[in-house]
Amino acid sequence: MWLSSKTRPTAATSGSDLGVTSISGGSAGVVTKGEMRQLPVYGPGGYSWQPATGETVLVIKGGTGGEESCVAGVKQGKAPSGLLPGEVYIHAKGGSVYLKNNGTVEVQGDRIVLKGRVDVSGSLYINGVPCQPSTGG
């Protein structure tokens, strides 16, 4: 009957869209077809990120009318040459951490601050030169 088709519950919908952040931070504002505010920001486990104003971001939409949305990530920048499957390159202005499949960790930055205890197992190189332990003299 036509009446039964009118009373069916609305199916949940989902989708995604690209938008530009208008308000940065962990509760972002994003312009897609209109502006949405106070969107939660999600990232991979163990990774914290806040989109900057003007960045193009991926907005995931869900709920019965697509009214529940969140920011899920940004378009990847240029990866370093030779980045292999399974490797991770995290970068921000002025610094990066590169986790390679061979166990190498490359840390680069204008200013690197290490806090607390740092244990190094294996060889330590500074600017490509092996670091020798101090003899106390």
How is this structure best described in words?
The chain has 137 residues and is mostly beta strands. It has 2 domains: 15-74, OB fold (Dihydrolipoamide Acetyltransferase, E2P), CATH 2.40.50; 76-111, no CATH class. The protein has one helix at 2-6, and strands spanning 15-23, 27-31, 35-40, 56-62, 68-74, 88-92, 95-99, 105-109, 125-126, 129-130. The strands form 3 sheets. Strands 3-2-1-4-5 form a 5-stranded antiparallel beta sheet, with no helix packed on it. The chain has a 3-stranded antiparallel beta sheet with strand order 6-7-8, with no helix packed on it. The protein has a two-stranded antiparallel sheet with strand order 9-10. The chain is elongated, with a radius of gyration of 23 Å.
Instruction: Give the helix tally.
Output: 1
Helix content: under 10%
Q: How does CATH name the architecture of the largest domain?
A: Beta Barrel
Radius of gyration: 23 Å
**What structural class do helix, strand and pairing data support?**
mainly beta
Instruction: Give the low-pLDDT segments.
Output: none
> CATH H-level name of the largest domain... which superfamily?
Gp5 N-terminal domain
Strand order of the largest sheet: 3-2-1-4-5
Number of domains: 2
CATH topology of the largest domain: OB fold (Dihydrolipoamide Acetyltransferase, E2P)
